[in-house]
Design brief:
The protein has about 280 residues and is of the alpha/beta class. The protein has helices at about 75-80, 110-120, 135-145, 175-190, 205-210, 230-240, 250-255, and strands at about 15, 20, 25-30, 35-45, 45-50, 55-60, 65, 95, 100-105, 125-130, 150-155, 195-200, 215, 265, 270-275. Helix 2 (about 110-120) runs parallel beside helix 6 (about 230-240) and helix 3 runs parallel beside helix 4 (about 175-190).
Length: about 280
């Protein structure tokens, strides 16, 4: 007998009396259904998930999943509503030149969300989709090509306590790559005010990234961060006066989890103000 095996990108399985397919929105019962995920891969009963709002890749058993029926997946709508979609600037007499952003992200979905956010507030931004391990090798070439005022280095990361303490770089999924990329960026431009660096993802080694030369980094409390958090900080720096020190606390409070998710140093902004318009 000839047996033919067909492999599909989508796999149907009955869990909780429901079919699950790649692309479905779900939550995990064992985590009190706190995070909304999209199914990106199914292997038998093992499912790979990606957070819709949180920069998180996770594995789960299909029996642990619950379909997310809420069509508005942004149930942190209060957070999104308070993000500035308009900037209050005096455009009658003055003109403004916001800082340019180079956003390097290993996740295309999150990158596109960040680029849409920049577009809404009229900031020039170039998005580059690059694997974490490739960023250190390519960062100087990208900086030379696009000459940004601000560079975002992000994607996915995780801390595994079974591999070491929080001060052990080998216990992190991508912090080593982020730190190397920051160090290489500082070889291109050593000044923290001429090049603003925002680095890290979920649970990254915050202290190591700051030590490497980042102006802002995640994650002081080793927590997950929102997909837009790096972009929020970049946008605030782009629209801050180049002649004035930033309000560090105010910028961090704009992010989803505040100082627990991202920290940084006081520096000046990157926006030039001109007159007359």
């Amino acid at each position: 007998m000839l047996r033919i095996l067909l492999v599909f990108n989508s796999y149907n399985c009955l869990g909780d009396n429901m079919e699950f397919n790649v692309g479905d929105l779900v939550t995990r019962n064992s985590y009190d259904n706190d995070v909304v995920f999209k199914i990106i891969e199914i292997n038998g009963n093992e499912v790979k998930l990606k957070g819709m709002n949180i920069r998180l890749i996770a594995d789960a058993n299909i029996d642990d999943l619950k379909k997310h029926d809420d069509k508005d997946i942004e149930h942190e709508k209060d957070f999104l509503d308070r993000l500035e979609t308009k900037v209050d600037l005096d455009r009658n007499d003055y003109f403004y030149l916001p800082g340019k952003i180079l956003h390097i992200d290993s996740d295309m979905d999150y990158l596109n969300r960040c680029l849409e956010y920049y577009k809404k507030i009229n900031i020039w931004a170039m998005g580059i989709n690059e694997k974490e391990e490739d960023i250190p090798r390519n960062i100087i070439k990208l900086l030379e090509e696009y000459k940004p005022n601000i560079v975002v280095i992000t994607g996915h990361d995780a801390y595994n306590k079974r591999k070491g303490n929080t001060d052990d770089l080998s216990a992190y999924k991508s912090s080593l790559y982020f730190a190397e990329a920051v160090k290489n960026a500082r070889k291109y431009e050593s000044s923290h005010e001429k090049l603003i660096i925002i680095a890290g993802a979920c649970a990254s080694y915050y202290e190591e990234l700051i030590k490497a030369g980042a102006n802002f980094a995640s994650s002081p409390k080793r927590i997950n961060i929102h997909a837009l958090d790096p972009a929020i900080v970049a946008a605030k720096m782009s629209l801050s006066d180049i002649n004035k020190d930033i309000n560090l606390k105010e910028i961090l409070e704009k992010t989803k989890y505040g100082k627990d998710g991202i920290g940084g140093i006081i520096t000046k902004g990157t926006m030039y103000v001109g007159y007359p318009r």
